[in-house]
Specification:
- The complex is a heterodimer.
- Chain A is mostly helical.
- In chain A, 36% of the residues lie in helices and 4% in strands.
- Chain A has a two-stranded antiparallel sheet with strand order 1-2.
- Chain A is flat.
- In chain B, a hairpin with a 5-residue loop joins β12 and β13.
- In chain B, the strands form two sheets. Chain B has an eleven-stranded mixed beta sheet, sandwiched between helices.
- Chain B is globular and about 65 Å long.
- By secondary structure, chain B is of the alpha/beta class.
- Helices cover 36% and strands 14% of the residues of chain B.
- The chains are: A mainly alpha, B alpha/beta.
- Chains A and B meet through α1, α2 and α3 of A and α9, α10, α11, α12 and α13 of B.
């Protein structure tokens, strides 16, 4: 599977990754190599095989919906690099 | 030499008041200053006063009933959230992150009397096998400083190997505890998926990630497991399986009654002949201790890497979506035009390997490709898991090499990502199958480079691995060899 430059740019855009023109070239080559390598999975007959998502077989882990308050809220707010206002983080507008 | 002691030796010394925790901590801090510049195992060494105060506190609260870990200095891979202590994942994206809380495993270790020296190097967000993707530069194996310590938990492995901390904690998603343990000649345990809480440890690939101990011997591994294993309401991936007393598995050297499986697929063309020789010798040693040796087959092994390099990047791409430098991370160096521009600018600072994995994962999960990649890989994963289930009907544990080669040279694999990925070929299957794996030293190459063997056990059968590994270490001295630094 060879990725075109446009495909690489599209994937980078979906992932919200800024990549330079030179990186598009480099990643295109490397990603194609990786995808080519994983194509060998097509050799395996998986008809009737269930996929494994949870390896120890857990299903629907439930707990009571009880609120546990976190004490160090100042510490949480301090982690943000953006300006704080009324204990909220101020971000750029969407438009 | 205080810095060379194991946990159990240090505990004995503390109990008999031969030395204090403060003296232990001081010995390590002095040695780190002297030795670590040549190894680069630590990315942060805590302030001396703080560490010594913590050690003094441990001394004053020490009693005859204290946990064996009480007052024994350790290090943590820099992906464990430590309240008030910078935690970076060795990424530009978190270079200034100071967690407001402790990971569950850190909380448990603190309760047991932890004295924390500092945080150790890792590949960025644990993505790599050599620590070469860390923003802090590569960690070298103390056995040959032209070679890598392995990864991603390379800093932890090198710190234990060079006696810069008594023990350490790492994470293992595809071999990240076992391979560096092997490259640095220490002992490391990849636990069963869900055996140790991951809450507060930065995620890489959520269906594969595990947290585990790295130490000087199997005895210490058992002591650490007794502190960290067990369910946590904050980690919903932990089945309710009773936690045994792991020290009960530290029996003698008699392995009669156990059968060890040796899979053909783990002795392949192109592997280093010294590795094969030493691991075969170790298998013969296990046989001498009474274990029955049986040839087995794990036929889907050759697809494990391909499965991994679909599932892992897919889950990485999902986990890394949260890193937007809004709630944490460094400020942008330029003003963004709008929120979309903010994202593109903020996420530019992931390293190349992170970008590769995020992009492969995004592609594999994107519309039209999900069935062909992620779903297909999950199905082959089932076959790999079934291989092991079938094998464990006949054998109690499996013995293989950890890595096809001894530690490789710095920059030897960095220009070819695929070649770097193939270095994990013997460790990845355990993560896909969710089983446990113990890496321990089993000799040296003709050029004196460390070689490790891997014992694989069924899900939640850490006790058998600890029993077999301890028996081996009681009758051999590879784990006692120290690098000359």
């Amino acid at each position: 599977m060879k990725l075109t430059k446009d495909q690489v740019k599209h994937v980078a855009d979906l992932a919200r990754l800024g990549v330079s023109e030179a990186q598009v070239e480099k990643f295109g080559r490397e990603l194609s190599g990786i995808l080519e390598y994983v194509d060998r999975l097509n050799e395996v007959d998986t008809n009737g095989v269930e996929p494994t998502a949870q390896v120890t077989g857990l299903l629907n882990v439930l707990r009571k919906d009880e609120v546990e308050s976190f004490q160090n809220t100042d510490g949480l707010l301090k982690c943000s690099p953006l300006p704080l206002e009324n204990r909220q983080i101020r971000v750029k507008s969407v438009f | 030499m205080l810095h060379e002691l194991t946990i159990h030796e240090a505990h004995e010394g503390l109990t008999k008041k031969k030395f204090s925790s403060k003296e232990l901590a001081k010995a390590f801090l002095d040695r780190i200053k002297k030795v670590d510049p040549g190894i680069n195992s630590y990315v942060l060494v805590r302030n001396e006063k703080e560490v010594l105060a913590e050690a003094e506190k441990a001394d004053s609260s020490f009693t005859g009933k204290s946990n064996p870990l009480h007052g024994v200095p350790c290090s943590l891979k820099d992906v464990f959230c430590t309240e008030g202590v910078r935690t970076t994942a060795c990424s530009k994206m978190l270079e200034n992150f100071v967690p407001p809380y402790d990971a569950t495993s850190v909380r448990l270790l603190k309760k047991a009397g932890m004295v924390l020296l500092g945080k150790t190097n890792t590949d960025e967000f644990t993505c790599g096998g050599s620590t070469e993707t860390s923003i802090f530069g590569v960690t070298k194996t103390p056995w040959d400083t032209e070679r890598v310590a392995g990864g991603s938990s390379g800093g932890s492995a090198a710190a234990v190997s060079a006696s810069l901390s008594t023990y350490s904690m790492g994470t293992d998603t595809g071999g990240s505890i076992r391979q560096p343990a092997s490259f640095c000649s220490i002992t490391g345990l990849k636990v069963t998926y869900g055996r140790v809480s991951r809450s507060g440890v930065l995620s890489m690939a959520s269906s594969l990630d595990t947290v585990g101990p790295m130490a000087k011997d199997v005895h210490d591994i058992a002591l650490i497991m007794n502190v960290i294993a067990g369910s946590d309401p904050k980690d919903s991936t932990m089945p309710n399986v009773p936690v045994p007393d792991y020290t009960k598995s530290l029996q003698g050297t008699d392995l009669s009654g156990l059968t060890v499986g040796v899979p053909d697929e783990y002795f392949i063309d192109g592997m280093d002949p010294d590795v094969e020789k030493k691991v075969r010798e170790a298998i013969a040693d296990l046989e001498k201790l009474g274990a029955k040796v049986k040839k087995i087959s794990l036929p889907h092994t050759k697809y494990a890497n391909a499965v991994y390099y679909v599932i892992c990047p897919s889950e990485v791409s999902a986990n890394m979506a949260r890193y937007d430098r809004v709630r944490f991370g460094p400020a942008l160096t330029r003003e963004a035009d709008d929120l979309l521009d903010y994202y593109l600018t903020a996420r530019t600072d992931f390293g190349d390997e992170m970008k590769r994995r995020i992009m492969v994962g995004t592609y594999a999960l994107s519309a039209g490709y999900y069935d062909a990649y992620y779903l297909k890989a999950q199905k082959v994963r089932t076959l790999i898991k079934q291989d092991f289930e079938k094998a464990f009907e006949d054998v109690d544990f499996i013995c293989t090499p950890v890595s096809p080669t001894p530690p490789f040279k710095i920059a030897e694999n960095t220009s070819d990502p695929l070649k770097m990925y193939l270095a994990d070929i013997f460790t990845i299957s355990a993560n896909l199958a969710g089983i446990c794996g113990l890496a321990l030293p089993c000799g040296f190459s003709s050029t004196n480079l460390p070689i490790g063997m891997q014992l694989l056990g069924a899900q939640f059968d850490e006790p058998t691995l600890i029993r077999a590994g301890h028996a081996y270490q009681q009758s051999t001295d590879w784990h006692l060899k120290k690098p000359t630094i």
